[in-house]
From TrEMBL:
NAD in keyword set: no
Organism encoding this protein: [Candida] arabinofermentans NRRL YB-2248
Superkingdom of origin: Eukaryota
Protein name, as recorded: RRM domain-containing protein
Keyword annotations: RNA-binding
One cellular-component annotation, GO: cytoplasmic stress granule
InterPro entries noted in UniProt: Cwc2/Slt11, Nucleotide-bd_a/b_plait_sf, RBD_domain_sf, RRM_dom
GO biological process, one term: regulation of gene expression
GO MF term list: mRNA binding
Residue span, RRM domain: 107-179, 245-318, 336-409
UniProt keyword Zinc-finger present: no
Length: 428
């Protein structure tokens, strides 16, 4: 059999997708959709379901296992006319295939850090915008929800687009979970009592579909499976790069500058740009790992071209969680963009050469811009730490000494944070 899809014909007309998938213990599933059966095929109106798997071998195994118990299955689903046949399938979309390989995409999504007292209906309505939902389980006391979309493509849209949307859930953590059909196939479940909420601490929450416990911390997501005596780590979501904020850019033109790279990045604040011209590569570290994943996904799907070359997108070495000092500064508005503005309208800021000479002592500079006839300037550093140092120095306890060291050139200026243009919404 050379197809990823199976057709389940003759199902009763009122069957629900969740009821059907409850009997499917094979996966991962790519998508599951209804197809209305033709009236001239059966004496009464029935439903057909097209079930597509990620891999052909899974479809073949599912077929060989279920076709031998078709009669029993027809009783379970109350569908006496049930037939199971191979169904011609289209090749897996390249975007879906890439997301599966690089990010561990499945049709299952976990949403955590949900605001208190949010109605379940609102969660459903907001996430249904990304595609039809098969199941939704809301764990209210843990502020988490587990969803299974009917297609992996819908889950990909949710993971990529929700953090950048204006939804009430845009600040929530969203990541891929295990397809319940896959888990049923690969792991023997413990009794229900063993995966109840008694195993979860204040920083953990239970996935009731997959018998998994998620431990949620900054920049890291660990999955555990409860046993009768202890919690044993059985999986780390390495495939979805949870916590990795660094994206690799390769195949760069030898003349590519950091400014050109930053002009190509949108959707998330940057912590660091590390350009290595002699190797034609660059590593870009975002503040948030979700925005790094979004850029990675969009850069893979929609090619990034700099200097006429298609840039190769990949993951860099895992950067780990954001430094606490940097995180605290970001909460107060820090970015790698330094604003130098006037408190009066008498003096203009120094010229670009002086600015570059003066502020290079804090770190390497990417770009300097002037606005309002030279009454304000923006110095973009390659590292947000450089900007933080500059703001702290000019506004700290030793500010007077700092100003003297620069011959009081900036005594009349306000020095604070500007807006990182890389954090602007992606270009349409």
């Amino acid at each position: 059999m050379s197809t990823r899809s199976l057709k389940f014909s003759g199902l009763r007309p009122d069957i629900e997708l969740r009821e059907f998938l409850d009997v499917i213990e094979f996966g991962p599933i790519e998508k599951c959709v209804f197809e209305l059966a033709k009236e001239d095929t059966y004496s009464s109106a029935t439903e057909n379901i097209i079930l597509s798997f990620v891999e052909t071998k899974t479809a073949e195994y599912c077929y060989t296992q279920l076709v031998n118990i078709t009669e029993e299955l027809s009783h379970v689903l109350e569908s006496p006319q049930l037939e199971i046949t191979p169904y011609d399938s289209q090749p897996l979309q390249s975007v879906v295939q890439k997301s599966i390989q690089d990010d561990g995409a499945t049709r299952s999504v976990c949403l955590s850090n949900i605001p208190p007292a949010v109605p379940q209906k609102l969660i459903y309505e907001e996430l249904e915008k990304f595609g039809p939902i098969e199941t939704l389980k809301y764990v209210v006391n843990k502020g988490a929800a587990f969803l299974h979309f009917t297609a992996i493509s819908s889950a990909i849209k949710c993971v990529e687009q929700l953090p950048l949307s204006d939804s009430i859930f845009s600040s929530c953590k969203v990541f891929y979970s295990r397809d319940r059909s896959t888990y049923a196939q690969t792991v023997q479940l413990t009794p229900a009592a063993q995966y109840s909420s008694q195993f979860a601490t204040d920083h953990q929450f239970v996935d009731p579909y997959n018998n998994l416990i998620y431990s949620n911390s900054v920049g890291e997501m660990t999955v555990t499976h409860p046993s009768a005596t202890s919690l044993t780590i059985i999986d780390s979501i390495q495939q979805s790069n949870i916590g990795n904020r660094t994206v690799y850019l390769g195949n760069l033109h030898p003349e590519t500058t950091a400014e050109e790279i930053c002009n190509s990045i949108r959707g998330g604040l940057l912590e660091l740009i590390k350009l290595i011209p002699e190797k034609h590569i660059c590593f870009v570290t975002f503040i948030e790992h979700l925005t790094a994943a979004q850029f990675f996904a969009s850069g893979t799907m929609d090619k990034v071209v700099i200097h006429g070359r298609k840039v190769k997108i990949g993951w860099g070495k895992n950067s780990g969680p954001l430094n606490k000092i940097v995180a605290q500064a970001v909460e107060k508005g820090a970015s790698r963009n330094l604003y130098i503005g006037l408190n009066t309208h008498i003096t203009k800021v120094p010229d670009v050469d002086i600015l570059r000479r003066d502020f290079s002592v804090f770190g390497e500079i990417e770009q300097i811009n002037f606005f309002k006839d030279g009454q304000c300037a923006f110095v973009n550093f390659l590292s947000i730490s450089s900007s933080i140092s500059a703001v702290n120095e000019f506004n700290g306890e030793n500010a007077e000494t700092v100003h003297i060291s620069f011959q009081n050139r900036y005594k009349k200026f306000k020095i604070s944070y500007g807006k990182d243009r890389c954090g602007n919404p992606p270009k349409s």
